[in-house]
Amino acid sequence: MSSAATPHVTAGVPQPRDTPARRISVFLSQHARVRLGLLLTAPLFWLGLVYVVALAALLITAFWTVDSFTGQVRTEFTLDNIITVVTGSLYQTVTLRTVGVALLVTVIDIAIALPVAFFMAKVAGPRLQRILVIAVLMPLWASYLVKAYAWRSVLAEGGVVDWMTAPFGGSSPGYGLPAVVITLSYLWLPYVILPIYAGLERVPDSLLEASSDLGAKTWRTMGSVVMPMLWPSIIAASIFSFSLSLGDYITVNIVGGANQLLGNLVYTNVGAANNLPLASAIALIPVAIMIVYLTAARRSGALENL
Amino acid sequence: MTSVTPAIRLTALTKTFGEVHAVDNLDLDIAEGEFFSMLGPSGSGKTTVLRLIAGFELPTSGTVELQGQDVTRRAPFDRDVNTVFQDYALFPHMTVLDNVAYGLRVRGVGKKERRERAEAALASVALAGYGGRKPTQLSGGQRQRVALARATVVQPKVLLLDEPLGALDLKLREQMQVELKELQRSLGITFIFVTHDQEEALTLSDRIAVFNQGRIEQLGTPREIYEHPQSPFVASFVGTSNIFDAEQSQQLLGMPGSRSIRPEKITLHPPGSAAAKGSISLEGTVVEAVYVGTATRLLVELASGKRISVLEQNVSSRSEDDRRGDAVRVQLAASDLVSLDPVPANTATS
To answer: Less packed terminus of chain A by CB within 10 Å, N or C?
Structure first.
């Protein structure tokens, strides 16, 4: 089979033409390192400059101060901002409140998402399954602001919640922390359902059948087979709802009444108070909390099979 | 079947998926301690029957009885049958020992006892010492054995096996066939074995049900199924057969009704040689010869244009190339020509 010496033998199939694009492809397929370099340069540039440098700038700024007379940022090293943030009772209270809201939102979302995702992945037929996936994704097409204001009107005095609960002697919780928890739970629910749904999809039906076959009733199967396999997905989902809640400040402004979360403090200090270094120091709080959270998740081994 | 209660009794069992009759009005008794195979092409309903017995599907109509008890509406965890799944369905987050002990744990067996019983079950499938591993660290054959140990450790009355050897390579499959048979003998429980591999079914089974389109096409011992197929479907699905339809058998064989004959029952002789007593001779030409190791498979074209397949032991030293084009006399013993026409039940075994 010396086809190279006798090209006319394969007359039926013309040889590919030697275009420049083809020569580049040949070169790249033979030089793995060049290929890797070309593929990674742009994303690494983005990650390095835009992401890491911005985070570093945040960290450095937190150790600077503001000249109270001119309002200019003075670039001399001081621990004052950090000390203020760590010891100030305002910051401690708001941090606890923010973590509490984020945890509550996460728990509520997971509690809602588990049955919904289970129905989608294991009960619904293929057609209903597609419809439900679209239904879960649909709210993401609408603007965040529109959804937050929609909840403002739903929770308003004389709004839908009032109207619906009035016959039973209830009333809307009004604007405040409960409203913030409700609205944030609504906003992040798709981000919690989808990872759990994807995790359930990866649990073969035969495992559920095997468990039942070996004598386990439904709840036992859930506890011994489904949940352990789903654990990484639940952690992944909780990272979304928890971190998104930690950084939110718009929803609080819209439905939170007079309450403030960490995001609001950052916002006020950047704007009205014109204290960028203090804002940076406050912004380090959620960063620190997330580092602790991710480390704990890693310790639990949940991140290994993500 | 009147005095002894069968291990499994299916009565008028029907399962439809939309318009499709996956299982169509099935009646079947499976005896205690039997190695029973359900053989058929994919989509013939054999797996659905297994899932109906296990309780993973509920029948559209009909009943499932387990040792005389109606279990039709019971959940899988309420039935004394266990399944070995096609994909083994081992729990990936548990060790091998925890997998095997799962059924005992669910039943509330104490830690020490379930450990001992699980280890004994692992030893019975030659996997002693593998308890600490995860299923992903095992080979396909080993996973298969873990699945067997997990299903048998809870001592079910009936073990259901859904194409358990399908994913294994030939050598391993043959080895596992022997082990399955030994396991069934030592446990003495009923095995219901689903397969599409006719050779596997013939090797292992006490009885075989050949499935086609949701119905049992034929039920019998391996010998009955192979030697006396009762329909063109069984004749062609189980092994290879030369089938003569009613017209051809009248014309060529001078016999009424459609007939079937196995390739290994046919002999080839030089043209014009004397025919044996009670046999039919047909003139033909060898059009293809293939060496298959233990034998040579020949395709002979008869004068009428019909082609028949012949399997000949390798006694001739002539090469396959040489034999193509040979004129031959094809000899078929009349007694080997099995009738494929439905016969009244009372004469079926004669």
So the answer is: N
How far apart are alpha carbons B57 and B76 in whole angstroms? 9
Mutate to test the interface with A, among B17, B52, B78, B93 (most CBs of A within 10 A): B93
> Domain total for chain A?
1
Chain B contact residues (CB < 8 Å to A): 54-56, 75-77, 81-83, 85-87, 89-93, 102-103, 105-107, 150-151, 154
Reply yes or no on whether the pLDDT at A141 is more than 60. Answer: yes
Strand partners, B280: B332
Close Cβ partners of A270 (under 8 Å, ≥ 6 residues apart): A276, A279
- Domain membership of residue A292 (yes or no) is yes
Q: Is residue A73 part of a domain?
A: no
A147 assigned to some structural domain? yes
| CATH number of the domain where residue A250 is located | 1.10.3720.10
Assess contact for A255 and A91: CB atoms under 8 A: no
Structural domain for A198, as ranges: 89-305
Q: How is B203-267 classified by DSSP, letter by letter?
A: HH-SEEEEEETTEEEEEE-HHHHHHS--SHHHHHHSS--EEE-HHHIIIII--SS-EEE-GGG-E
Which residue, among A148, A174, A237, A205, has the nearest Cα to B85 in the 3D structure? A205
Query: Each residue of B123-165: pLDDT tens digit?
Result: 988 899 999 999 999 998 899 999 999 999 999 999 999 998 8
* Entry pTM: 0.80
Question: Phi and psi at residue B74, in whole multiples of 5°?
Answer: -80, 150
d(CA A228, CA A224): 7
